Amino acid sequence: MAKKGSKLYSITKSKCPYCHEGYFFEGSFFKGTPKEECDVCAGKFSKEPGFYQGSYYVVYGLGVAVFVIIWTSISLFFNNLSFNATLTTIVIGLIITAPFTYPLSKIIWANMFFKYGTREEHKKM
Ligand SMILES: [Zn+2]
Fold it and tell me: Which are the contacts of 12, defined by CB distance < 8 A and separation ≥ 6?
């Protein structure tokens, strides 16, 4: 599994991108709202107002990945399914995975900008 200090650890365990100790989200993971700052190291989880709007690029990429996985699975195992049935299955799959991909996109986005062990440098900005 991912070790502490790697971005994968922070993403899979929903931990602070700086210290990998504090929890990243305000309340539940499925609510998908990042805290203002870490409870443990006080590192800020936002660079500027609207910082997490960029995570929509990530959630788009995750949506495409879900689409490709479902489409490939249908093509391999149910290749006599009609176009409409395939499309309906993909849409249902995207709706079911949305509560996971939405918060996941935010912590992936945060990990693209904040590195492990750099909280002090970030606070000086
Ligand atoms: Zn922290």
Answer: 1, 2
